[in-house]
Amino acid sequence: MSDAPDSTERRRKGLEVYASQFGCAPEEARVLFETQFGSAFADEAFEASGGRVWQEGPLSMRERSLIVIAILATLGGVQERLSGHVTWAIDNGASVDDIEATILMVSNYAGYPRSSVAMETARQAISEKDSHR
Description:
Blueprint lengths: L3 H19 L3 H12 L1 H11 L2 H4 L5 H15 L3 H13 L4 H15 L1 H20 L2
């Protein structure tokens, strides 16, 4: 059995995940990624996102989004990515309370300096999303 159909399907699903996150058509997401990161990086990102991480298993998209917020808050220095994931988490059913509670949890384990920047970034993203409604 060839890996090609599996790989192609994973890329397609991954592209749909990114298009959903960016609020655009899949073709627009592909062009954005290829322009910003190059085609090899884009292919890897699409294939990874089209697999188990975002597509399979018992976790809901809301839960997956909250996990990503916790990870990005812990990493620090990725405010632009965090902001996008906060917006997408809301689209995936997370409430403002869910997001703030997730970041508060991070403060206990990753420290207040990183979580305070994450909270500030999240609140700004939420405010911007609210102003576009």
